[in-house]
Amino acid sequence: MTDTATEQTPLTPGRALAILEEGNRRFVAGTPGHPNQGADRRSALTQGQNPIAVIFGCSDSRLAAEIIFDVGLGDMFVVRTAGQVIDDAVLGSLEYSVDVLNVPLVIVLGHDSCGAVTAAVESYATGQMPPGFVRSLVERIIPSVLAAKQNDVHDVNGTVAEHTDQTCDRLVASSRSLYRAVRDGRTAVVGLTYSLADGTAQRGRVIGDLEA
């Protein structure tokens, strides 16, 4: 079991991803190590934080990132919105994680049966938009629905995977800070799609050099 607190040298994006994938395998196998969750770890973090990755994921209650990747306090900087929809607060949070905390890896975490993506698929099919601010979420996901259909993908789960990849692209296109971090090899952006049934997180889009 990897204790991320023992990582002394700066992590490459690939090494950070490997730690998370190792944790996910433990979670899937039902043998989590629960690292970095004790009183000593809590005390050690009072003076600062040094997360190995930032997770930008869906707000779904079944998508608890620290549990899925079997990590603990201070290991991940987590940003969540329904359907992992991007807004200014999201971009500001991700830029802070990369430029101030020097996080080497940005993960975009989607999941199958996503309610927000389902609503976008249904709205596109029927031409009816949901009320209130849910409409704003759906409007921001519709471009991913269109991209999926252009690739002959029409089901919700296939659209989720496309939306996760599209979100990776939009982050780098929307933020000069993230673009520069990827260009300079300081970070990489990776899309993962989580399976609610078996707990696995499958790789999708990779932007940047994992071994930089």
Task: Outline the structure in words.
There is one protein chain. The protein has 212 residues and is α/β, with parallel strands linked by helices. The protein has a domain at 10-112 and 169-207: Carbonic anhydrase (Beta-carbonic Anhydrase, Chain A). Helix content is 45%, strand content 16%. The protein is built from eight helices and five strands. The chain has helices spanning 13-29, 39-44, 65-68, 88-99, 115-126, 134-150, 156-174, 176-183, and strands spanning 53-58, 76-81, 105-111, 188-194, 201-207. Strands 2-1-3-4-5 form a five-stranded mixed β-sheet, with helices on both faces. The protein is globular and about 55 Å long. The mean pLDDT is 94.
Short structural description:
This protein is 45% helix and 16% strand. By secondary structure, it is an alpha/beta fold. A hairpin with a 6-residue loop joins strand 4 and strand 5 (201-207).
| Secondary structure tally: strands | 5
Radius of gyration from the CA trace? Answer: 17 Å
CATH topology call of one domain: Beta-carbonic Anhydrase, Chain A
Query: How large is the count of helical segments?
Result: 8
User: Going across the major beta sheet, what is the strand order?
Assistant: 2-1-3-4-5
Structural class estimated from helices and strands = alpha/beta
| The CATH top-level class label of one domain | Alpha Beta
Low-confidence stretches: none
Helix content: 40-55%
CATH architecture of one domain: 3-Layer(aba) Sandwich
Strand content: 15-25%
- Average pLDDT, rounded to a whole number, is 94
Element order: H for helix, E for strand? HHEHEHEHHHHEE
What's the CATH superfamily of one domain, by name?
Carbonic anhydrase
Broad shape: globular
Largest sheet: 5 strands, mixed
Report how far the terminal alpha carbons are from each other: 24 Å
